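User: Thanks for the earlier help. One more: Group III truncated hemoglobin. Can you show the sequence and predicted structure together?

Assistant: Of course, both are below.
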Amino acid sequence: MADLKDISTIEDIQQMVNSFYANVRKDELIGPIFNDKLQDRWEPHLQKMYNFWQTILFDVRAYSGTPFPPHKQLPVDKTHFDRWIAIFNTTIDAQFAGPITEEAKMRATNMAFMFSHKIEYFRNQGL
């Protein structure tokens, strides 16, 4: 097996995002939630994700916005976020290896943890 390269270009981010969401769309637990929410708006979502990850990993100001609000009302809980992270890590580990790859996995894990806890908090508060 050939050595895997690290994430280093926008094309790598596009590959990461496209393959990750291809796996998400097929997943029996979280796929229906994403497909129902996005319907025919996958392309704009993918573009937003390219920009988001470019900002996070390369410190390029391609994304502006607040990622939490669109997720706040989704019918998800910790189980869904655990699956999201499992798919993310499996997908990325099959394609890339290196410090930026590890940074992406750490950032995704932290984001999933935060989103899961914030959603639970808002639900418990009746917000």
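User: Great, one quick takeaway?

Assistant: The CA atoms of residues 40 and 63 lie 22 Å apart.
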